[in-house]
Design brief:
mainly alpha, single chain, MetI-like fold, 302 residues
Length: 302
């Protein structure tokens, strides 16, 4: 098919627009990486743009040498893995059941799933419920149980099951005497790699970035004296503490020491950002192809 001049102009405009959008999304992260390895004086003066200026790694040394960082990493990894596993264990079976047209009381269950989407108690009732009734304060449970599933994830997975896995496959398995449990684990799940990867990535990112829940329900030490706070809360504490110490230093040090301390705090900010996002950046490339496929199926055929 011959391409007209209008087609070429349209393609060129698309390439230019997408290039601008890509640059606008990638450059901020690249700048943070470059700034974290640069002299903060050069960063503040605008001398740092593409490559590090005055290369140094003091900020990373100050961050990584903090033992609370590794504790936060351990807790965040546990919350991400456990929370993702629980979410998949709840969401996928529910979606499979909702995909069956002959499910008993299907309207009732759909209504029960929809009610929490529109009616929520809010922070104070939730805190009272979790603290007084369940005793979740200073335990791991508020980090992994409250977000175990959502109607949106169930609908996306249900749409994937109904649009991707043919009914004839279910019928042939049932004719051979297979139960729904066998069909789900031996047929449905192996054919649903894309949607599993999508929901696993979304759940893992959500748990990894969890900040407000930890700030409300967790203290520095849990009931057994073991720190339960995730990485995001540890990084916040380091940053807030550094800023507070810089303010106190105004009254206890000369101007030279104060400026040096402020520069160190400013550079630590960039290092903290990189430390917190590196694990997700390392995981995403391995599930990218499944992520795109699963999102498109759930969006187009839903």
């Amino acid at each position: 098919m011959r391409r007209t001049r209008a087609d070429k102009i349209f393609d060129a405009a698309n390439v230019a627009l997408l290039s601008i959008i890509t640059f606008a999304m990638i450059y901020p992260l690249w700048f943070v990486i470059v700034a974290s390895f640069s002299d903060i004086v050069k960063v503040n003066s605008g001398a740092v743009t593409i490559w590090p200026v005055g290369f140094q790694t003091d900020a990373y040394y100050n961050v990584i040498s903090n033992s609370f960082i590794w504790t936060g990493y351990r807790n965040s990894i546990f919350y991400a893995l456990a929370g993702t596993l629980i979410k998949l264990s709840v969401t996928l079976p529910a979606a499979y059941a909702m995909s069956k047209s002959n499910l008993r009381y299907k309207k009732f269950f759909t209504t029960m799933f929809m009610i929490p989407m529109f009616i929520q108690g809010g922070l104070i009732p939730s805190y009272i419920l979790f603290s007084r009734t369940y005793g979740f304060v200073n335990t791991i449970w508020p980090m992994i149980l409250p977000g175990a599933t959502s109607l949106m994830q169930i609908v996306i997975a249900r749409t994937f099951f109904t649009s991707t896995i043919p009914d004839e496959l279910h019928e042939s398995a049932e004719m051979d005497g297979a139960s729904h449990v066998y069909i789900f684990f031996s047929i449905v799940l192996p054919l649903s790699t894309a949607i599993i990867a999508v929901q696993a990535l979304q759940a893992a990112v959500g748990h990894w970035n969890s900040f407000f829940t930890a700030m409300i329900y967790l203290n520095d030490a849990g009931r057994d004296g073991i720190s339960l706070v995730p990485l995001q809360l540890v990084l916040r504490k380091i940053l807030v503490t550094s800023q507070a110490q810089a303010e106190i230093a105004e009254f206890m040090a000369d101007m030279t020491d104060l400026n040096e301390y402020r520069r160190r705090v400013e550079q630590i900010k960039y290092a903290l950002i990189i430390v917190s996002v590196v694990p997700i950046l390392l995981v995403y490339p391995f599930v990218q192809k499944y992520f795109v496929k699963g999102v498109m199926i759930g969006a187009i055929k839903g």
